[in-house]
Amino acid sequence: MGGPMKVIIKGLIAICIVLTLHPMGYTRDMSVFKEFIKPKIRVFLVGNKDYDGTDMDLRYTVNDIIVFRQIFKKVFDVPKSRIHYYEDLTLSRFIKVATAFAKKVKKDELVVIVYTGHGNTNGMPIFVDKRTISPKKYFGIVNSFDNDTILIMDSCYSGAEGSESNILTSNDVDDTVLELRGDGDSKDRKPLRYRKNVLRIYSSLANQQSREARYKKIKGIQKHLGDTYDFLEEIGYDGDGNGIFSLTFASFFAEEEFDQDSYTFNSLNSHINDKVSELMGDSFDVQRPKISPPRSPFKNKKNFFLFSRDEEFVEKPLTVIERLYLKGFYQQMYKKNYRKAIKHYKRVLEMEGEYKSTNILLSESYYRLARKIGFNDPNKSIPLLQQSLNYNSKSIVALNTLGQIYQYRENYKDALSYYKRVLKIAKENENKFWISSVSNNIGTIYARQGKDKKALKYYKQSLKMSEELKDIAGQTTANNKIGEFYFRKNKTDQAIKYFKKSADVSRKAKEPYGHATSLNNIGQIYLYKRNHSKAIEYFTRALNILRPLPRKRERALIQLSMALAYEEQKRYSEALRYYKKSLSIYKKLKDKRGIASGNNEMAMIHFKMKHSSKALSYLSKSYKIRKKLKDNVGLAEIEVLRGIIYNNLKKYDQSAKHYNRAQKIYIKMDYQPGVIRVKVNLMEVYSNIAKRSIKKRKYKKTIKYSKKALVLYELAGDEISIGRTYSNIGFAYFKMKKYKKSLQNLEIGLSYSRKLEDENGARLALGYIARVSNDLGVRHAEDEEYEEALSYLQRALEVRRELKYTKSAAGTAQNIAVVYNNMEEEDQAIKYYKIAVGLYKKANAYNRLPEIYFDIASFHYESEDYKKASKNFKLAIRYYNRGNKRGKGLRETRKYLAFTSNNLGDESLNEENYRKALKYYKQSIKQLSYIGLKGKVLEKAYEGAALSYWKLDKLQRAITYQKKLLALLKKGSRKYKAHKKNLRVMEEEYKNR
Question: For 886-993, which CATH class?
Answer without folding.
Answer: mainly alpha
